[in-house]
């Protein structure tokens, strides 16, 4: 561990220019954020002409009737227009907040607010919580109207919205309460570890964040999810029998099998699993059950179990820990650089001893281009995992020796097509737009891969004869 701290200290020495060089960090943050927003707008403009195509890709021509494809194109076009406007609007607001010193103002307001309750500047964590609350309320002034439009105009127009105004408000209030009840203590402990561990905070913070992630794995399905959706045991029947049999054959530690009332808010479909290594739970949306046959839903679940078999969640967790370590390892150079915080309009009285919350918030701003690159890399990894999960489902007959699963690849292909048709998902996708935004391969790519698996199997069987 001492060797690690020596290496981290060497890294801080390399970053010492942060505290000495006259860098206009605010301009850098503005330039990076605008560059990323304009790049994302460019990607949308690359994608937009594809919504004018009048026929689906040849591989999907037999599965989309003219009306469904036209509706899919219109839905995609409307979503692209909304994303373009919303992205530029959010960026304009964020840029104005940064340019006119709103973050420094929020810190000052939080200090005066704490002063009214008899708390001075020595209560940095308490003031940081107030600071975060003020910024949350300011950002909500923009995000809530956009969310209202997206739910009650865009999704409503295309027949997906099932959320009533009262349910929307109820969900909003629940999210605010959860943010306060969970986010507040989390932030307080996060900042406390910074203060308590001193310059050796990196490993301690990583341990805390890992523990928090594990706790949330337990709390989310048992406490948080039931606040928004009803999880009911999947009724006895063909689908339950198939799922339990598949779990037994794969030795998947299935504890509970749920149906969730996703149709309460949307017509979109999904299925997923969660839980600790020794106790897993599968959740299937009622919309998926309604729109797909039991053998097709089984194929979707086989794909999800492929993620478990190949330990994809664990691998992603390890990658996320490496990502977090990299961020925390870079941060001390910025935490101990008064002129870095001063560049964002904070008074010298604050910048002389930068509050951890303020320095970290500003630090994340300048990581924008790096985080965008990391996002693309994570998409590449995620896509590879999706291929592996699809192949796992296709090869179940060989893995388990069960002849009834010889057509699992065909069933998965039909299920994916059904999901795309019912969700009016975009089927014409620009490659660069997809690389930046999509963690899953496109439908055409997945169907082509499944067909490739089938061709390879047929070739191998022919050689054996």
Automatic annotation (TrEMBL):
Record-annotated membrane-spanning stretches: 131-154, 175-195, 201-220, 316-337, 357-381
Zinc listed as a keyword: yes
Residues reported in the UniProt entry to bind Zn(2+): 303, 307, 386
Peptidase M48 domain segment(s): 234-452
GO cellular component labels: endoplasmic reticulum membrane
InterPro entries, A to Z: CAXX_Prtase_1 (IPR027057), Peptidase_M48 (IPR001915), Peptidase_M48_N (IPR032456)
Annotated catalysed reactions: Hydrolyzes the peptide bond -P2-(S-farnesyl or geranylgeranyl)C-P1'-P2'-P3'-COOH where P1' and P2' are amino acids with aliphatic side chains and P3' is any C-terminal residue
Cofactor(s) needed for function: Zn(2+)
Protein's membrane topology: Multi-pass membrane protein
GO MF terms held by the record: metal ion binding; metalloendopeptidase activity
E.C. number: 3.4.24.84
Cofactor note (record): Binds 1 zinc ion per subunit.
Active-site residue numbers: 304, 390
Top-rank taxon, per record: Eukaryota
Keywords: Endoplasmic reticulum, Hydrolase, Membrane, Metal-binding, Metalloprotease, Protease, Transmembrane, Transmembrane helix, Zinc
Compartments, record wording: Endoplasmic reticulum membrane
Domain CAAX prenyl protease 1 N-terminal: 47-230
Predominant subcellular localization, coarse grouping: endoplasmic reticulum
A GO biological-process term: CAAX-box protein processing
Function: Proteolytically removes the C-terminal three residues of farnesylated proteins.
Family: Belongs to the peptidase M48A family.
Record protein name field: CAAX prenyl protease
Organism from which the protein derives: Boletus reticuloceps
